Amino acid sequence: MLVTYPEAAHWPIDPDRLDLVEEFRRQPRGPHGDELQKLLHRLRWAGDPDQPGRYVLIVTQPGKEWMLGRLPRQRGRPIELMRNHVFTSIAEAEWEVFKLRWEAVTGRTLPPHLSEKLV
């Protein structure tokens, strides 16, 4: 069940909580524990005013293919499509977005054993 946490946009992320990263990596589509849900909410809604918009997935073929995109900073402008980032697995697509959002919000890349593609 999706729960909205109004305070999650300001929920502090501990970049050392790699257990939450591992939990997401194991089950990118859920179910997720309370702390991971708060983390995901923060990653989905946090924005850095010095960076382009948030990373998103665009469905190019329903249930078959997704493309990475970036929302514009200004509402109403076109979404930046990253045509070289196309996925045929929703789990792989969600994992890629998670890694990019994690780095954008924490300023840290994930360790190599966690940053690899899903198998």
Describe this structure in words.
The protein is an alpha+beta fold. It has one domain (15-115). The protein is 35% helix and 18% strand. The chain has 4 helices and 3 strands; from the N terminus they run ααβββαα. The protein has helices at 18-26, 34-45, 90-106, 112-115, and strands spanning 55-61, 65-70, 80-87. The protein has a 3-stranded antiparallel β-sheet with strand order 1-2-3, with helices on one face. The chain is globular.
Unreliable stretches covering 5 or more consecutive residues: none
Shape: globular
Whole-number count of domains = 1
Total number of strands:
3
Topology:
Layout: H1 18-26, H2 34-45, E1 55-61, E2 65-70, E3 80-87, H3 90-106, H4 112-115
Antiparallel strand pairs: 1-2, 2-3
